[in-house]
Amino acid sequence: MRLILHKLVLAFMLLWLWFSSFIHVDAADDSLKPGDTLNSSSQLYSKSRTYYLQLFNYLEISSVYDDTVVWVGNREQSVNQSTADLSLNFSGVLKIESESLKKPIILYSPPQPINNTVATLLDTGNFVLQHLHSNGTNTLLWQSFDYPFATLIPTMKLGVNHKTGHRWLLYTQLTYGSAAPGAFSLEWEPRGQELMIRRRGKVCWKSGKLRNNRFEHIPEEAQGVLKYSIVSNGDEDTFSFTSTNENITHFWSLSGTGRLSYNYEEGYVARADLCYGYNNTEGGCQRWQDIPKCRIPGDVFTKKSLRSNYQNVTFDNDKNISYSDCEAACWSDCNCNGFTEIYDDGSGCIFYQWNSSKDYIVDATVSGEDIYLLENKGNIIAHRHGTKRWIWISPVIATSLLILCASILCLAIKKRKHVLQEKKRKEMSLIEDFGNDLNKKHGLKVLDYTLVVAATNEFSSDNKLGQGGFGPVYKVWELWKDDKYFELVDPSLNEVFDHEEVQRCIHIGLLCVEHYANDRPTMSDIISILTSKSPIVSLPLKPAFYIQRYMYNENLSSLELCTGSTVEITSSTIEMTTST
Q1: Where does 291-381 sit in CATH, by number?
Q2: Residues with Cβ < 8 Å from 542, sequence gap 6 or more?
Q3: Which CATH architecture has domain 24-147?
Q4: Helices (H), 314-378
Q5: Where are the domains of the chain?
Q6: Is the distance from CB of 237 to CB of 160 less than 8 angstroms?
Q7: Where are the transmembrane segments (predicted)?
Q8: 3-class secondary structure, 359
Q9: pTM for the complete prediction?
């Protein structure tokens, strides 16, 4: 019985030891205390639940918003997540252990053992290890912000610590599957007071000077909601930023191609992927090499979905090289027309050599592979600065063209107006000469053209009787017949006119519009009548009305088409006469 009891106790102790090995901090907690561990089944959350820390193949801090990884702790060496854990021991050592590791990854180890420590994920996204003192103060021992990943978040620094010589800078991931530092880095250059991107140590992009809280070569939308902080003293030279909107967190992320993006690929801060080394300062690009003789400005690598014949390809199986290394190698090789990565994680290179486009097929409707094909896109390298310049120049050109067209139109109108005025002047001159001639030879009084215009109310259609080949005819007949011809006289004459002369002129005018040409007086008859005081023998007949294309026939119940007919209308009959 005692033996059975001992076995039960031993079994219980083994079960307790096995169970205790899986004890970890609560997911809602933000700190590790001495003796606590964290594995792949648990997380630390910042108090505001903006960031969380977890351990898989890498120790990662991610944004709760969209799970974007903003920091990686063990970049140089991944672990087996099923057996890995993060722990803080009672000596103040913060470390990652795994069965796949020969020795632990030490994040921090104090010079002397420290018992009272705590590791906390702050609301800023900074994971800090602190020494807690009995008087309530804390000493910072280690922080994740001292070892930035490929993402710059608010309050994280870039620059240099003058006391320790430590540098804060972003590094891209080597490949999709490896968090090891890649080809590109983002740094703060204290002497020039500007940001810069290097590729394998060579400066390929600069932000330009900071003026009025804006960098010259960074788009406004990428920095318009940011407030920059520049510190320059004996302790450090650093750059950092904060968001002007406390409810929105803004990130800058550096990709393996050299593109610096903001807010989860919402837009770009810098396009170092378009800096090929031979262009100077377009868009912030820097010059570090001469353009190869086989390349021309505007040559760029464009991602295409292709099917290739694979007849002319070469390989580089090095897993420590990635996209930018493949691009640089292909760019320098005049026989290379395109490239792609060998391995699924984005490492290694395949280089293509084609004699013509017949060696490959571009077809998005079939299964192909992504190949970066060398194409000429014009001066695309001046991507952002040039685009901004054209955005500014285009309205200027459009405005200039508009002004030019408006000027030409105004000149044309002015010229036409001048021609019309000149024509009118000549006509008035002719009329004036004609009137003077009549006055000299026959003593006739010729009315000024402006008086005629006023008398007819500017030749208003309300006063028109009709219009024929000799011009418009006005309603004179009824007034003349009723001896009311004086109503035709312009009131501006103020009764100062010769009634007999006016009556004679109206009489002659009515004769001049007789229906039949034989009944109309000749010009010599008109001059004779005007120059003599003898009574006019011929009396004008009632004018005929011209009814365009229709006439009324008593024998028909409707209007019939009758081109070129005139009709004299009375109260009882309709007399039709064909015009000649």
Answers
A1: 3.50.4
A2: 477, 568
A3: Orthogonal Prism (2.90)
A4: 323-332
A5: 24-147, 291-381, 449-543, 544-580
A6: yes
A7: 390-413
A8: helix
A9: 0.60
